[in-house]
Amino acid sequence: MRGGSVAVVGGSIAGCAAALAASRGGAERITVLERADSRLRDRGVGIALHSDRYDELRDAGYVAPEMPWAPLTRRVWSVRDGEADHGRVVGEQPFPFRAYSWGSLWSELRRRVPEGVSYRSGTVVTGVEPDADGVTLRLADGHRERFDAVIGADGYRSVVREAMFPGADAAYAGYIGWRGTSPEVADLPSDGHDAHNIVFPGGHCMIYRIPDGTGGHRLNWVLYTARLRALVADNFPPYWAARVLRTPAETTFIQPIYDLEVPHYTSGRMALVGDAASVARPHIGGGSVKALQDATALEAAWTAGGSWREVLESYDTARGPIGSAMVALARRMGAAQVEHTPDWSAMGRTAFDTWWQDQNEGSDRRSGFGGHSLKPR
Question: Which pTM value belongs to this model?
Fold first, then answer.
């Protein structure tokens, strides 16, 4: 279907990908409305893409080899063992991932948004008013703008989702993620090619190397728990405790953990992508993958459909079940890795492998850690 005016509410990774999808699908006029100003590009946290998902997204034209990344090959799970510097390894897994900085990945996607798309930073959408054949957006400056369709890429507090499904809010999972980035990457084990999970009663911390956007690297970590400094000092092996506790305060922040499912990914002339549609806890390692895959599915529906109804119904059918499956798997992982952790100190590698497999029982064979495969099996 060609033509029409489209607004994308939200201009981060999901929003840029959605704008690219709308352009490729044939929309005539596309406007991206991003509430943040240029500081959006300054987020320095890490994102990891499974290599298979990267290949699918590269073939679809949403990521490219020139985007700065760091290779990861193995994930090592370790528990404190007295004063042993790196602790004791309780489990190892293949980890074929590509590590990115959020800021550099967003910058590359933003650069790929066609010049004809109007990208407006510092524009806050306060209301969404759908009608039979379009959607009117109310802006904080008092203006109103009408579009043939609106795509909500505005995260877990989406104003577009609220207009589609009032009261369908993200639910707090009961714990938080502490995040930080550190310049201490000089002597990482395995030359930085491993991702490390430091485990302790009531949570775990994932640590891996990411590009810093200027040709070097930083150490990215996210720790799932309700407390930080005392926990790290008491439960981390000394090497990893030092790297977390010496992280500069200005690069440390809190990420509340949420669950979110919606009845549908579309309603009328409105559609949702990324965290506006569903939020899976980060343990699944597929949040950014899902946002980019949402865009590829939207593009495919747009290209094949002959009307707005056909496009949006096809998109909902393609992505709704996948979003629900990812949320369910991430809940199971959160329960096993944070809410009801095993006795790590008593665990050997055989017991670890069984514990890991139990989290994936009942999953769609195409879904797992790293996200959902776009290829049928």
Answer: 0.92
